[in-house]
Write a structure and sequence with these properties.
single chain; about 290 residues; alpha+beta; 17 strands
Length: about 290
């Protein structure tokens, strides 16, 4: 059977940058095993499958697979899939919004069109924070081969995807990290993590630079991670690094893998964190499967 297929670069307006997600449109009829096999075949950090809705409030439903597991939610696949769904005409925004159904429930996505192209921003699912134990923080440092700051103690942030979040002292220190991936896999599986999202603040801009590692999911380094950066935003807000309930900043990620992208992070007066950016389609075709 032929199914429409896209590869969308999320968090970039330029092709071949940002984070690619493979999107299988009209995926009804595929088994769990077939979806997992396709995700292994694409070998991208995530592959998504667009399916009929089960909740009448949704515009489309998606399942999200890494090469090694299924995720209830992830950031760049959410925005990339939304972009592909809009482009393919499978659903349309109403009053500038579209609603995705996924493993964590309903995700509202804002859609704006302008001279610079389409900008998408998702409402991050509620974040649940758990402080990392001292012995686990020491293990995290051993995995990274670099100390982490304890001004805001490292924490596990659950937004559907589950990230251990920590800050390091400088961007140069962040970019120098060479994690022990085998040791990280054991750490991630023991704590039920998707992976590690590590950041450093850029004193010149007030933004941050991020790196995300998820070897237990088959992704040693994710180029530009929406859920990881959303988790960092929740971590920073709860730790008092972001003033007030309403704030915004920019995160950059992907330099170490040659796929730099930009993520816009913000919160409104209700404390809802938004994760946004541009998307561009780089591959359009048919999947014969």
């Amino acid at each position: 059977m032929q199914r429409r297929y896209r590869v969308v670069d999320a968090f970039s307006a330029a092709p071949l940058m940002g984070n690619p997600v493979a999107v299988v449109l009209e995926a009804d009829g595929l088994t769990d095993q077939q979806m997992a096999a396709i995700a292994r075949w694409t070998n991208l950090s995530e592959t998504t499958f667009v399916l009929p809705i089960t909740n009448a409030k949704a515009d489309y439903r998606v399942r999200i697979f890494t090469p090694g597991s299924e995720l209830p939610f992830a950031g760049h696949p959410t925005l990339g899939t939304c972009h592909a769904v809009l482009e393919a005409g499978l659903a349309g925004a109403r009053d500038g919004k579209i609603v995705q159904e996924c493993g964590v429930g309903l995700i509202e996505i804002s859609v704006s069109e302008g001279d610079a192209g389409r900008h998408l921003a998702l409402n991050l699912p509620p974040a649940h924070l758990t402080a990392l134990k001292d012995e686990d923080t020491r293990e995290l440092e051993a995995i990274l081969g670099h100390p982490v700051l304890r001004t805001v103690p490292p924490a596990i942030i659950n937004v559907g995807a589950v990230w251990a979040v920590a800050e390091v002292d400088t961007i140069d220190g962040l970019l120098s990290l060479t994690p022990d991936f085998a040791r990280s896999i054991t750490f991630e599986r023991r704590l039920g993590l998707t992976g590690l999202s590590i950041f450093a603040v850029d004193p010149a801009t007030g933004g941050i630079e991020t790196r995300s590692f998820a070897p237990s999911c088959g992704v040693n380094e994710d180029p530009v991670c929406g859920s990881g950066n959303g988790s960092i935003a929740a971590f920073r807000a709860c730790g008092g690094q972001l003033a007030g309930s309403s704030w915004s900043y920019t995160a950059r990620q992907g330099r170490k893998v040659g796929r730099e992208g930009v993520i816009a992070l913000s919160a409104d007066d209700n404390g809802i964190i938004r994760v946004g950016g541009a998307c561009v389609t780089t591959v359009s075709g048919m999947l014969d499967f």
